[in-house]
Amino acid sequence: MQNFKKQTALAIERAIGELMPGAPLTAREIEDFLEYPPDPSMGDLAFPCFRLSKIMRAAPPKIAASLSEKLADFPLGTAEAAGGYLNFKVSPDYLVSHVLAAVEEAGDSYGSSRIGEGKTVVLDYSSPNVCKPFHIGHLGTTVIGHSLKLLHEFVGYRCVGINYLGDWGTQFGKQIVAFKRWGDRETVEKGGCDELVRLYVRFHEEAEKDPALEDEARAEFHRLEEGDAENYALWKWFKSVSLAEYEKTYKQLGITFDSYNGEAFSVDKVPAQIEVLKEKGLLKIDDGASIVDLSEYNMPPCLILKKDGSTIYHARDIATAVYRHDTYGFDKAIYVTAAQQSLHFAQLFKVLGLMGYEWSENMVHVPYGTVSVDGAKLATRTGNVVLLKDLFKLSVDKVKEVMNEKNPDLKNRDEAAEAVGVGAIIFNYLYNSRIKDINFTLENALSYEGSTGPYAQYTYARTCSILEKAAAFDPGGPDGRLTHPSEEELLKTLSRFPEKVSEAIEGYEPSVITRYIIEVCTAFNHFYRDCPIVTAETDETRTFRVRLTRAAKTVLGTALRLICMKTPEKI
Questions:
Q1: Do residues 191 and 340 share a domain?
Q2: pTM for the model
Q3: Distances from the Cα of 364 to the Cα of 348, 499, 512, angstroms
Q4: Cβ contacts of residue 327 below 8 Å, gap of 6+?
Q5: CA angle 368–422–426, rounded 5-degree value
Q6: String of DSSP letters for 172-224
Q7: Is residue 555 part of a domain?
Q8: Do both 140 and 219 map to the same domain?
Q9: Distance between CA atoms of 110 and 133, rounded to whole angstroms?
Q10: Among 70, 275, 324, 375, which one is most buried in terms of CB atoms within 10 A?
Q11: Cα–Cα distance for residue pair 422/419, rounded to 1 Å
């Protein structure tokens, strides 16, 4: 089913075409111009006719009046001129016969489409640095990336989720030096990433007193690159210790990946791409290092190889991109990383294009802002981190305290508490535009009031409770009618879900869905407040309101799952 906004845009395109053959605006362009009026009395959608004034050589009010005449039989409702605007109001009959019926017919597929059918999207996200524990700074790339994967799958794309582990680079020389000097296997096996990061922090503390340690670390990494057996065995072990811990976090988040091929996987694929760079005349020597000059494109040089011939990020990323295209034949490749890496990806995409890889035009960097906790920024090398596992535990424990007080007889309390505790952190992170810097406070995230995860999950659980009580009532067929403004507002809100899905995908912005969830919760809770459901005055009204409740549960559940949230039915 096309949403109300799309259908309205198509109707306007046809009307303009009748007034001016060879319509100057397409339905897609018109859809972008449509606005939601601030006052519901002005209608459900408004089209500003000022956009057409110059083209049609007429005053906006005259254009609006002419279009209104052409749309006298608008099948979705009414179209009325108001000054230079054309205001549309959806009819109650349309909301019941099309929106409610569409949710009931499609179920969990409502809001989806087939626009991605036959296309492949590769998503690179999460990608923690091996030997370092998951902290709250990793949350952004992980939940934004996975939400984008779920959204693309929802509209038909074949998605490949790749966890491009940071498992190569000079930091491993530092880790090897630290372990050889101050570590032991038993302590690392017991302490996991916490012990590895303790060693890493100590390296930096000692290196401040003895700078020669930096040279030692570079030498150890070079030996690793050359295939030194001892260093390779240590590197592989560090990686296994790290992955075992990461998997626990991914399980809590409900996230799986299709590939864990990290930077190291691409090392042996770099030489072939170095040859391509040479063949294209792109590689230049600058003070002993190999670079690609990008000054013509207002970018600093792209470093490919260091003076000692060691590979660097760009070289490995080039080889990785080529491998992914050769392997998956992607139509789009999405990289979800911090905004500070925007230049890196601009250079990467440009160099790939200069190498002749036309598919580089289909590569997208999705940046996000920084996160601080109560105003404190994070830095692994100083030990100033908030570990995600610790934050999750604290959040879950606090939710359990609330549940023990409010619902002591709740079954599956541990499972529900984890869903709400972890979900509160996810929701709080995804609520604002991804590019905004975030100052996280657990108290705000855990509130059951306002725009929070617990409020959203509690509303979902409320729909489940109502439906459980109403289980004895047959929801009946498609007939029914609206009898209260809150019913109408709820249906209008549900009608916008397909539009919100499209908007989130086009802008690579999960917060569109997160904020929409609050819109649904608000509309449903107003409906719940204003309209008795199980105790409605007539069987017909009760049946109809049960149907509305079920539709709200369907849309709310789907939307929550699209942002990596779980949907406990009792909390």
A1: yes
A2: 0.92
A3: 11, 22, 19
A4: none
A5: 20
A6: HHHHHHHHHHH--HHHHHHHTHHHHHHHHHHHHHHHHH-THHHHHHHHHHHHH
A7: yes
A8: yes
A9: 38
A10: 324
A11: 6
CA distance 38 to 356: 49
Question: Exposure pattern of 41-57 as b/e (b: 16+ CB <10 Å)?
Answer: ebbbbbbbbebbbeebe
The verdict on 139 and 201 lying in the same domain is yes
Which residues form the domain of 12?
4-90
- The amino acid occupying position 19 is L
489 close to 523: Cβ distance less than 8 angstroms:
yes
Residue 235 structure tokens: 């590197």
Same structural domain, 329 and 451: no
* Side-chain half-sphere exposure of 314, counting CA atoms within 13 A: 24
Domain assignment present for residue 101? The answer is no
DSSP string, 423-444: HHHHHHHHSS-TTS-EEE-HHH
Contacts of 110 (CB under 8 A, 6+ apart): 102, 103, 497, 498, 554, 555, 558
The two beta strands, 438-440 and 371-373, are parallel
Residues 402 and 371 in one domain: no
- CATH number, domain containing residue 170: 3.40.50.620
The domain boundary residue, chosen from 37, 71, 90: 90
pLDDT in tens, the chain (571 residues): 457 888 999 999 999 999 888 767 899 899 999 999 988 888 999 999 998 988 888 999 999 999 999 999 998 999 999 999 999 999 999 999 999 999 999 999 999 999 999 999 999 999 999 998 888 889 999 999 999 999 999 999 999 999 999 998 889 999 999 999 999 999 999 999 989 989 999 999 999 999 999 999 999 998 998 899 999 999 999 999 999 999 999 999 999 999 999 999 998 999 999 999 999 999 999 988 999 999 999 999 999 998 877 778 899 999 999 999 999 999 999 999 999 999 999 999 999 999 999 999 999 999 999 887 765 554 444 445 688 888 999 999 999 999 998 888 888 899 999 999 999 999 999 999 999 998 888 889 999 889 999 999 999 999 999 999 998 766 555 567 899 999 999 999 999 999 999 999 999 999 999 999 999 999 999 999 999 999 998 889 999 999 999 999 999 999 999 999 999 999 8
For the record, the structure tokens of 73 come out as: 């039989």
Q: Are residues 415 and 363 in the same domain?
A: no
CATH number at residue 418: 1.10.730.10
